[in-house]
Amino acid sequence: MYELKSVHKRYGLSKVALRKIDLTVRDREFLVIYGPAGAGKSTILNILAGIARPTSGDVLRDGESIMHVPPEKRDAAMAFENYALYSHISVGENLAFPLHARGMNRADIDQRVKRISGILGIGHLLDRRPGFLSGGQRQRVALGRAIIRPADIYLLDEPVGHLDAKLRHKIRAELKALAEDLSATVVFTTTSSREALALGDRVAVLNSGRIEQIGTPADLYHRPANAFVASFVGDPPMSFISVEPRRGGDRVAFVTPDGMPVAALATDAVAGLRDEPGSTIQVGFRSNEVRLAEAGDPGTLRGRVDVIENLGYVKIALVGIGSDQVSVSFPTGKRLSVGETVAIAFPRDAVHLFQNARAIAHAAPSA
Amino acid sequence: MLQRDSSFAKEALRYGLIVLVLGFIVFPIFWMIVTSFKPAADIMVSPPRFLFTPTLENYYHAIYDKNFLFYIKNTLFISVASTILVVVAGSLAAYSFARYNVGDGHILFFILSTKMFPAIAVILPYFLIFRDIGKTDAGRFLGIGLDQPGALIISYTMFNLPFAIWLLVSFFQDIPRELEHSARLDGLSRLKVLRKVVFPLAAPGIAVTGVFTLIFCWNEFLFAYILTRKAASTVTVGVESFFTLQGILWGPVAAAATISVLPMMVFVLAMQRYMVRGLTFGAVRG
Fold first, then answer.
1. Residue B90 C-alpha, separation from nearest chain A C-alpha, in angstroms
2. Residue B188 in contact with partner chain A when CB distance is under 8 A
3. Closest CA to B98 of B182, B204, B170, B5
4. Which residues of B fall within a CB distance of 8 Å from A82?
5. Cα–Cα distance for residue pair A30/B191, rounded to 1 Å
């Protein structure tokens, strides 16, 4: 088990990469660190690997500080985002490098190189130099060099980020299977929501050097801790509508500034809601939690279709309502065109409520 | 048709220029070699003679009468020793400048600035320093003094080191840090990373630096002329001894020059394959 305790990392005088974060990597878990570019994902891996030292804070392994342990003694294997291949030796020698360095015998090395290059589909490239490979091939070599040897922890920095969609899907699946097969502890960074949700046993959402939320993919998707996580996890991201609360009886109604009702929740479900003048209150929806209204639906909101995205199995319409934009999924068979005015039906009780970007309530649909 | 004519003219012009440039560069070397085989009577005649009876008397004179191989031996020892010192010290210094930015660029610039004054400006202080060091026991023991190889080795190292460092820094900067990080995670210690990853990748730069330094040492005249008399004289000074009271012995001079050019030619040709840039090509996402 690895722990980062209040780890702060500053580069130079002003650039702060990590702001006093606490993070635990459990044994044999597949932890995904998910965040936008520049969030500090690579810095976390570098600190775990021993390449970078925290400005303050501590790094523990099984309860003992490993701050003083140099990278070569840490038993961590890492795939770098920019590959970092040894360009003066062949692909085969690149793969064998970490095994040679640890004094493994020739026969075992050959067998491992063969197995890993087979999984990654680079078996035919073993005699080539990295300079003669495509970007995707180089990335697979970099990944192969990381996973070829048994290690206490595997640190994979966007290892499939530059592959084409099909290969990415395949390697992703192989990676997950391999990690389970080896019972390996893996820390994996990505900028893809899909990858984070598909791979992670747990996912840590990182933003500007802070951990916004850490939890299972289902937690992040259904119970985002704040508006950042809600808008960053899931594709399309959650949409928001600014509302004002109207308390009445045992329910609180949420209406748009124009007075259109959007949702109504039981008072005890929104116990966290504070009456602060000037605070921003937003209702959030997943695109599949709202639908285009049909005749007779009560309390719908009208808006103009700005963009239509066709995902193949479903279409997504971005509908402008006031100053907000809501994504709504609808069946591909339905005809709709940009500029059309549509009505949107809200599930009323199945909504996510945020006050000043912090989650107040996640109401499940009533049975 | 017009197209073809113009492209033919272009090609003709291209090859014409190549032949012209080659003529400028190769002809003097050719003439030197030819002259080294000419009998004395055929050398300084007008018009120049292309046909003659070749002779080895010039080589005989240079090697046996003037003992020219002695100068070759001196030069070889001094140049190689100085080059090794420059390459080893230069690589280590350049690596630390490239990786740790020692002195924030100011020390690096200061080092280069020592190249900016002419050699003649320091030759007198050098002469005095080596004369005095040569009188001490340590100076005698280490062979550092006037007319001793140590004096020239130190002088040449001093003179080449700034440029070598400057040249090597950019080669080391081109090696991505991640390669070193990766190698350390793969289980290599700091020094092993240098040996197995950094230096092999910087090989082209190290080769270029070695070639430049060796050529400089081999051709240097001023320091060798002032700091040596006989025992530690190099080829450039050796050739100068062919300028006698009886006149310049052009035949033996040409023979000596031919002998002294050969080792450099062989060396540069041998190093050529290491001097290709772009060994780090493909190491990181471009």
1. 22
2. yes
3. B170
4. 176, 178, 284-285
5. 34
Nearest to A9 by CA among A24, A23, A27, A21: A21
How far is it, in rounded angstroms, from Cα A64 to Cα A76? 16
Q: How far apart are the first and last CA of chain B?
A: 43
Cβ–Cβ below 8 Å for A51 and B279: no
What pairing do the DSSP bridges indicate for beta strands A186-190 and A153-157? parallel
Alpha-carbon gap, residue B89 to B95, rounded angstroms: 10
- In DSSP notation, A243-284 reads -EEEEETTEEEEE-TTS-EEEEEEGGGGTT----TT--EEEE
Residues 6 or more apart in contact with residue B39 via CB below 8 angstroms: B52, B53, B55, B57, B251
Question: Per the structure block, which two tokens stand in for A214?
Answer: 């850490």
- What pLDDT score does A58 carry? 96
Residue in chain B lying closest to A147 (CA): B186
Kindly report whether the peptide bond that precedes residue A331 is cis, defined as omega within 30 degrees of 0: no
Q: Measure the CA–CA gap between B154 and B68, rounded to whole angstroms.
A: 24
Domains of chain A: 2-232 (3.40.50.300), 239-361 (2.40.50.140)
The domain spans of chain B are: 4-56, 58-279
Q: Do B181 and A51 touch (CB under 8 A)?
A: yes
Rounded Cα distance, A234 and A225, in Å: 14
**Which residue in chain A is spatially nearest to B183 when comparing CA positions?**
A98
| 3-state secondary structure (DSSP) of residue A302 | strand
The CB density around residue B54, as the number of other CB atoms within 10 Å, is 10
Say what the pLDDT of residue B105 is: 87
**Contact of B74 with B232, CB cutoff 8 Å:** yes
The reply to whether B283 touches chain A by the CB within 8 Å rule is: yes
Chain position carrying tokens 């289902």: A218
**pLDDT band at residue B282 under the 50/70/90 scheme:** low
- Amino acid letter at A340? E
Backbone angles phi, psi at A232, to 5 degrees: -105, -25
Amino acid letter, residue B121: A
> pTM of this prediction?
0.81
Hey, how many other C-beta atoms are within 10 angstroms of the C-beta on A124?
Answer: 9
- Comparing alpha-carbon positions, the chain A residue that sits nearest to B200 is A88
What is the arithmetic mean of pLDDT over A354-361? 90
CB contact under 8 A, B182 and A84: yes
> What is the per-residue burial (b if ≥16 Cβ within 10 Å, else e) of A69-78?
eebbebbbbb
Return the SS3 of B143.
Answer: coil
Residue B100 dihedral angles phi and psi, to the nearest 5°: -110, 0
A70, A76, A85: residue with CB nearest B283: A85
Instruction: Tell me which CATH code domain B58-279 carries.
Output: 1.10.3720.10
Cα–Cα distances in angstroms (integers) from residue A255 to residues A194, A278, A300, A345, in the given order: 32, 16, 11, 14
Which member of A81, A85, A145 has the closest CB to residue B282?
Answer: A85
Could you report the per-residue pLDDT of B2-39, keeping only the tens digit for each?
566 778 889 999 999 999 999 999 999 999 999 999 99
Which tokens go with B155?
A: 């002088």
Instruction: Give dist(CA B266, CA A315) in Å, integer.
Output: 71
DSSP code for A62:
T
